[in-house]
């Protein structure tokens, strides 16, 4: 992810999805930080629906009962690797 256009595609894939509470994208570092009650596989699937490959770099702590569903909210950091992937 090296341009704002790619970043906007990733943002659009995540924004407004049930369970996603915040998104922070750093184009220069090719990273996105996602705070969500989704599993890492669900977040990865949303990101990769844009044609980019995403690799989980790390998961932050979780807090019970902080989102509207009463579940856990975790922060995960993703790194984009290689060229766009098309299915």
Automatic annotation (TrEMBL):
InterPro entries documented for this protein: HMA_dom, HMA_dom_sf
Pfam families: HMA
Domain of life: Eukaryota
PROSITE patterns: HMA_2
SUPFAM superfamilies cross-referenced by the UniProt entry: HMA, heavy metal-associated domain (SSF55008)
Domain called HMA: residue spans: 1-55
Protein name: HMA domain-containing protein
């Amino acid at each position: 992810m090296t341009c704002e256009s790619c970043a906007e595609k990733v943002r659009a894939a995540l924004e407004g999805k049930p369970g996603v509470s915040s998104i922070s994208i750093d184009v220069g570092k090719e990273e996105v930080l996602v705070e969500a009650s989704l599993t890492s596989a669900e977040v990865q699937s949303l990101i990769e629906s844009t044609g980019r490959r995403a690799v989980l770099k790390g998961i932050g702590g979780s807090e019970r009962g902080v989102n509207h569903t009463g579940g856990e909210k975790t922060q995960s950091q993703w790194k984009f690797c290689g060229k766009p992937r098309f299915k």
